[in-house]
Amino acid sequence: MSTILDRIKTYKLEEVAKLKASTSLADLEAAAQAAAPPRGFARALRDAATSGYGLIAEIKKASPSKGLIRADFDPPELAKAYEAGGATCLSVLTDGPSFQGADAYLMAAHDAVDLPCLRKDFLYDPWQVTQSRALTADCVLLIMASLDDGQAAELEQAAFDLGMDVLIEVHDEAELDRAALLKSPLIGINNRNLHSFEVTLDTTRRLARRVPEDRLIVAESGLYTPDDLADLAQYGARCFLIGESLMRQPDVAAATRAILSRPLTAQGGL
Ligand SMILES: O=C(O)c1ccccc1NCC(=O)[C@H](O)[C@H](O)COP(=O)(O)O
């Protein structure tokens, strides 16, 4: 049975083929070179995690698992609210068919703030990596569940060659062991199973201890409260990627401040 990841891969490859036919690689590379220089995404998270939490706050209008999440959707205003609330970095969904995202949302959010920005999309082809830089992305996401080792290494190197960081996303032990063979310091543990949509923080609790010490854990998905962050911090996660729970709040800046409000010193074990 085909899953959402299979369906996304099919339409992404069609999209890319069309874009390749309409935009020359030389033009795309020129646009990537002309884009604002990359903001250090991994560095910002590392710095934040030395004395507190690193927060990647996600600009997410809708999702396959939840449908419409936020009707009042203004990416530059949301970016400013996240920055005012203390986010370290932004994640912006650019996939249209499944998330109601758009490339323009990434550029608009990036322009509105000084925060490093992740292009949250489904990448299979180095062409998309160059396109991400042209869209001002400072970091790209690689999902191990939908890439083989060779593809992941090729996409990672393409991103590094353009000065971007890479968030490698895993959901189980086998994917984590494959991610550890790559170079990126950022390992995202997605608490959401992208096939069944089941979400459990046990995924981070289970996998965190297996992450090599020189990597930075980013716990992703299903995070709602300061206690969730404090809980996963006990397992070694210092960075968090949060979308829905912040997007559903009318006052996004206040919600961002609130989720970061439980100080590390009060948590013990850190
Ligand atoms: O969110 C989904 O339904 C989804 C479905 C299929 C593939 C990816 C999906 N989400 C991407 C993400 O991983 C999340 O947007 C991100 O981790 C934030 O999660 P949340 O805080 O639960 O919105």
UniProtKB/TrEMBL annotation:
Its EC number is 4.1.1.48. Residues 5-258 form the Indole-3-glycerol phosphate synthase domain. Signal peptide: none annotated. Pathway: Amino-acid biosynthesis; L-tryptophan biosynthesis; L-tryptophan from chorismate: step 4/5. GO terms for molecular function: indole-3-glycerol-phosphate synthase activity; phosphoribosylanthranilate isomerase activity. Pfam families: IGPS. PROSITE patterns: IGPS (PS00614). It catalyses: 1-(2-carboxyphenylamino)-1-deoxy-D-ribulose 5-phosphate + H(+) = (1S,2R)-1-C-(indol-3-yl)glycerol 3-phosphate + CO2 + H2O. Keywords: Amino-acid biosynthesis, Aromatic amino acid biosynthesis, Decarboxylase, Lyase, Tryptophan biosynthesis. One of its GO terms (biological process) is L-tryptophan biosynthetic process. It comes from the Bacteria. Belongs to the TrpC family. This is Indole-3-glycerol phosphate synthase. It comes from Tabrizicola piscis. The gene is trpC.
